[in-house]
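Researcher: We're teaching a course module on how sequence relates to structure. For the next exercise, students receive a sequence and then see the predicted structure as tokens, so they can try to spot secondary structure elements on their own. Here is the exercise chain.
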Amino acid sequence: MTTSINVEGIKAPGLSNLSAISKRASIKLEWDSSFSGIQKTVEIWRATSNNRSGATLQYETISDWWEDTDITLGQYYYYWIRVKSIYGRSDGDWHPTGSTSGVQGVSDVSASGSTGGVAGTGSMSSGWNTIDSGTSWTPAITLDAKKLLINARWDYVNINPGTMTTGEKMEAYARITLYNITDSTNVDVWYMGGSSHPVWLYDYDNPHETRGIIYLPFTALCNFTVFSTKSYKLMLEVNLTMTGSFSVSHSYSRDGIEYIVL
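Model: And here is the predicted structure for the students to work with:
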């Protein structure tokens, strides 16, 4: 007597632990497979709303992960997966099982941003003076990033002393500060020419040492976590050391600042 077994009637195995990992320009899906002998591929279905009835098949893979790169930045997607068996049957249980329980994934809205130009004038005193107080910028990203490239340009920065007499002297040191507005902390500080080298030097008795208006292009790569929920600004500050009682004023023009999240 011969006994036959209808192996084609065996249901495809299930899957578990589907997760969607947001990346800079993609969404990576990972899951656990049983790797049963009848598992051929895993079908990946995607919808733009949390309803499987609107989902479409995106890909079939033999692996336990897949990276979705055919996306619109900032668009939320919902995913379901199931197994196709070696018999060509896609009758494995959906994971997640609920038709409105898709795993949500999203990629970044933008990897860059910028602020416009600004100009200003003001008086100064001994010690640190904020010349350009900066323009607030909040990164349009959904992920915290690890690096930030900054490109900035001041068309001119002028530190201008009033009338000086014999023995009077002024030194001015410049720094650029990336400031976390949300937490009221300095993220990074760059000194122009070094912390002990004056960018401006006015000496009444040695006029040949005088320096005046400067053009200030600035580029920096910052290795710190850029938080998607915090605001930042780039400030130009000048430390003024004076010998005498003359007045000092400043003027500046900033063309703009570009932030590139990496």
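Model: If you want an answer key for the exercise: The two ends are 70 Å apart (CA to CA). The chain is about 0% helix and 50% strand.
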